[in-house]
Amino acid sequence: MYELSNPDRTAIALTFDDGPNTEYTPRILALLAHYDIRATFVVVGQNTADNPSVLARIYEAGHQIANHTWSHPDLRRLSSGGVRDELERTSDVVEWATGGCRTRWFRAPGGDFSPKALDACFQLGMSPLAWSVDPQDWRCPGQNYIASTVLSTVKPGAIILNHDGGGNRAQTLAALNDYIPRLLDAGYTFTTP
User: Fold this and answer.
1) Which of 68, 137, 163, 164 is catalytic?
2) Domains and CATH numbers, the chain
3) Which of 27, 48, 87, 190 is most enclosed, with most CB atoms within 10 A?
């Protein structure tokens, strides 16, 4: 899924990859709570195992959780069994950390939805989740670049890719503080896939 299916005229979705992270995820959760927004957190299994209480906070706040593999590998280099193991381990640790949540969505690292990745995704009862707006925040291009990219490319049905883990996300957090109120003022509503 690159865009929301059958969105209303104003619906868009925020997604956050590579967490949970003890520094940035709680700050993003506070910002989302301030605006009463639900988002999708696309989590790495190792990070979830290291930070189960942060994942529990995500879940308890009503956000959606998606699978982003156990170790964020290049899936093209893994066997079909290796890909499936990456997804299963992550789904299992998410279920453990949340007390029962099973992931319904899978986002491949780097968007590599190869046949092996899709096969494992479907075999485990998940659906692929991509994105339509990518401000490249993982590169730390600056708050203004991130915000202006989102604001200039968003449209109804958009799925916006952000990162809460995988490095310093101060620019992402600052950009969210900039573009979320502007999107709300423009009449957009936030939902999850």
Assistant:
1) 163
2) 11-191 (3.20.20.370)
3) 48
